[in-house]
Design brief:
The protein is α/β, with parallel strands linked by helices and about 400 residues long. The strands form five sheets. Strands 12-11-8-13-16-17-18-19 form an eight-stranded mixed sheet, with helices on both faces. Strands 2-1-3-4-5 form a five-stranded parallel sheet, sandwiched between helices. It binds cytidine-5'-monophosphate.
Length: about 400
């Protein structure tokens, strides 16, 4: 099975410690897991433990997302392939069934459009209470997968159903749901306020900005790129309803609303993050990736001795676009950018074939396009060339995303 992403919500109960073992099991199986700890859950396990085991940031409260773009929690809930609640307390089940969203965990559960697996663990009386049973029946009717707890002796000394199932059984259920065709709570496209969302449900991956290739701790090789065109494209994609992941090199720009942003420095880091973000329906590689890096990065600052200039040996960087072009998870629509100073169309056409992409957006950078507000582009596809007049980068971005939506969207 290819790597999947699991969002694990750890509720407040004595069984929370077993969530740690579940994280290890999921990681061992080769999947990524990102943890959300409720207030109650943090009484039993620490963010530090879950963070170390998951090798990812642990989210503990809505407050955590304050510096992210508006809708950060929505994106968090949708980035995953599967949402797992373990342990699912009586309180979480009740809130979820009622649609209450008063903390990060319950907000994510209300916002997600992915399959949800709830693994209950609680005192036997609480499990058997008509209120809990009503909630479980209601949640199952909504499409939530609620496991039956194990029966046996409980931490509180009582006996009966309510124990957290063995981790192996929980993982079995996870593996089953990950391999089954998506059976989540049916989420409806949002057509409120007459918003046009032709990319609803599509995953769009964008790279932007330059990459920095270290020579020593203080110096680097870079390309001249502000990231503005890529950020404008990510924003336009989100506005058309797509789930957008933006992998960005070092830039001075704020994250567009609703976009998941991953910051990287070097080309090799960018490639790793791009591959992690797959699968995607559309990938638009706007980044000005440095073609070369220093063959040997010096651990200490290279000193001037006033006599000789240090030699700088270069090594070739991976070509991210070309890698995607022959990737087993190649996006259905793969778009590259080409900054050229001469013979723009001719060079772009050659690039289309060389990199295995579907379209090339070519621009003449002999003027002041780099870092400027405007851009004039030509779209090269196998069917021909379209020339778009000079326009602000956000206008170009919207026009490009409309064209993409026509090609892959729901109209
Ligand atoms: O070959 P050139 O750098 O002109 O190709 C430009 C296109 O290829 C852009 O879409 C850019 O993001 C992508 N590229 C890449 N990895 C590289 C070099 C370029 O993804 N190492």
């Amino acid at each position: 099975m290819t790597q999947k992403r699991i969002l694990l919500i750890v509720g407040g109960g004595i069984a929370a410690y077993k969530a740690c073992e579940l994280v290890r099991t999921i990681r061992k199986a080769g999947h990524a897991v990102r943890c959300v700890l409720t207030k109650g859950g943090s009484q039993f396990v620490t963010p530090l433990t879950l963070g170390a085991l998951s090798e990812d940031k642990v989210y503990t409260d809505l407050f955590d997302l304050k510096d992210e773009a508006e809708m950060g929690h929505i994106q968090l809930s949708r980035q995953a392939d599967l949402v797992v609640i373990c342990p699912a307390t009586a309180d979480l089940l009740a809130k979820m069934h009622a649609g209450i969203a008063d903390d990060l965990a319950t907000t994510l559960l209300l916002a997600t459009d992915k399959p949800v697996l709830a693994v209950p663990a609680m005192n036997v009386r609480m499990w058997q209470h008509p209120a809990t049973q009503r909630n479980v029946i209601g949640l199952r009717a909504d499409g939530v997968h609620v496991m039956d707890p194990d029966a046996g002796e409980m931490a509180c000394g009582e006996y009966g159903p309510g124990r957290l199932p063995e981790v192996e059984r929980i993982y079995g259920e996870i593996a089953h749901l990950l391999s089954a065709p998506s059976s989540g709570i049916a989420a409806q496209p949002d057509f409120t306020e007459g918003k046009h969302r032709p990319l609803y449900g599509k995953r769009v991956l964008v790279t932007a900005g330059p990459t920095h290739e270290p020579i020593d701790p203080v110096r680097y090789i870079a390309n001249r790129s502000s990231g503005r065109q890529g950020f404008a494209i990510a924003q336009a994609a989100a506005e058309l309803g797509a789930e957008v992941t933006l992998v960005s090199g070092p830039v001075h720009l704020t994250t567009p609303p609703g976009v998941i942003r991953i910051d990287v420095e070097s080309a090799r880091e960018m490639l790793a993050e791009v591959e992690k973000a797959l699968p995607a329906d559309v990938a638009i590689m706007v980044a000005a990736v440095a073609d070369w890096r220093a063959a040997d990065e010096a651990e200490q600052k290279i000193k001037k001795d006033g006599k000789s200039v240090p030699p700088l040996a270069l090594a070739e960087n991976p070509d991210i676009l070309a890698t995607l072009g022959k990737h087993e998870q190649r996006p259905a629509l793969l778009i590259g950018f080409a900054a050229e100073t001469e013979k723009v169309v001719e060079h772009a056409q050659a690039k289309l074939a060389k990199k295995g992409c579907d379209w090339i957006v070519a621009n003449d950078v002999s003027g002041d396009v780099m870092g400027g507000a405007n851009n004039a582009v030509q779209i090269i596809t196998k069917d021909g060339v379209e020339s778009w007049a000079d326009a602000p980068k956000d206008v170009i971005a919207r026009k490009l995303m409309e064209k993409i939506a026509d090609a892959v969207g729901q109209g």
